[in-house]
Design goal:
- Strand 3 and strand 4 form a beta hairpin.
- This protein has 2 domains: 56 residues, no CATH class; 105 residues, no CATH class.
- The strands form 2 sheets. Strands 1-2 form a two-stranded antiparallel sheet. A two-stranded antiparallel ribbon has the order 3-4.
- The longest helix has 29 residues.
- 73% of the residues lie in helices and 7% in strands.
- By secondary structure, it is mainly α.
- The radius of gyration is 31 Å and the shape is rod-shaped.
- The chain binds zinc ion.
- The site of zinc ion has 8 residues, from strand 4 and helix 1.
- Zinc ion binds next to strand 4 and helix 1.
């Protein structure tokens, strides 16, 4: 049964020769491969465009280096502090308890900041201030050490509340959270954008 390839017009036998059947007729092997390659190219292009579009609409959050460094310093510093205090406890029980409680709160805030939780930075800032007040009430006000601590605090405060930090911490909204979760589960941009438009309805 002689058949002409719809694409190139080459004659072949559709029962014996290697060919493909498409909706518009029979196509020889070479032309079929070209069609498949073209289809794949279009799909990849669509995927690239969708990825670009999704990245524009929902930019992934970038953690500023300053936030990373501060968070790790808080985590490491307070871990060491807790270990030192437990291995060499002060005579006063309330001092021991307060040091451990604040150490743990700072640890939690450091981990929360690394994970981009907005409450993490405010937990750190508020508990630092509360801790300072506790310190003054319990152990008296020491000008030099308080000034040094506050200078360090203001430095950290600046980095935790600047524009880059706000961009990182503030998309802590329900919508962005959902999109972030979806992105972790769905890597294919076509599937992801279908899911997003489905949920937008
Ligand atoms: Zn052909």
């Amino acid at each position: 049964m002689a058949t002409n390839c719809v694409d190139c017009g080459k004659k072949f036998n559709r029962y014996f020769d290697d060919c493909e059947r498409f909706a518009d007729g029979f196509v020889c092997r070479d032309c079929a491969n070209k069609r498949f390659a073209e289809k794949k190219r279009i799909e990849e292009e669509k995927r690239d465009n969708l990825t670009m579009d999704l990245n524009n609409r929902y930019p992934t959050r970038k953690r500023p280096t300053s936030v990373t460094i501060i968070s790790w310093l808080i985590i490491i510093g307070n871990t060491i502090k807790i270990i030192l205090i437990i291995s060499n406890p002060p005579s006063s029980a309330e001092r021991l308890l307060l040091s451990i409680i604040f150490g743990i709160i700072f640890l939690i805030s450091g981990i929360a900041m690394l994970n981009g939780h907005n409450w993490g930075r405010w937990l750190y800032i508020c508990s630092f201030l509360i801790g300072a007040v506790f310190g003054w009430l319990l152990y008296g006000f020491h000008l030099i050490s308080s000034m040094i601590r506050f200078a360090v605090f203001l430095f950290i405060y600046g980095f935790l509340t600047n524009v880059d930090a706000d961009k990182f911490f503030l998309p802590d909204t329900i919508l962005n959270k959902q999109i972030e979760e979806l992105r972790k589960k769905i890597s294919d941009p076509i599937e992801l954008s279908e899911k997003l438009s489905e949920e937008a309805k």
